Amino acid sequence: MNLLLDTHILIWALNEDPRLSETAREMILDAGNVIYYSTVSVWEISIKHALHPENVAFSGRELASYCQKAGFLSLEIRDKHVFALETVTRPENAPKHSDPFDRMLIAQAKAENMSFLTHDALIPYYEEKCIIPV
Q: Of the candidates 115, 14, 112, which has an alpha carbon nearest to the alpha carbon of residue 67?
């Protein structure tokens, strides 16, 4: 299975953070799965590091380097990912979620027929088949 990791799952996996669920850990370590990180996550961390280096201790460049050393594959942003954004919707009664990085990650996973691992409780409201809450 091709797995795209949400930014926080990615960081937790790289840091062996105890907040990473056992299910997520098993999926990431499963040799039958191919693990991807997105340019979107690198972009997100680059912005957060530039704005609040005291809260985000590493740069986007460092995140990409850590991912490559871990054997994760890069998923760059393509036009079809941007076009897929138009198909990512939420029910009107769903709690508000305005994180554009998450929407783009969902669109990438959807367009590439990947599974998207996340711990964000608001993301499953998108009701996309690609989302795997862990």
A: 14
Band (pLDDT 50/70/90 cuts) for residue 125 is very high
In the chain, domain spans: 2-128
Is CATH 3.30.930.10 correct for 2-128?
A: no
State how far the Cα of 56 lies from the Cα of 59, in Å rounded to an integer: 8
pTM, two decimals, is 0.95
pLDDT tens digit sequence for 95-119: 999 899 999 999 999 999 999 999 9
Under a CB-based contact definition with an 8 Å cutoff, are residues 112 and 127 in contact? no
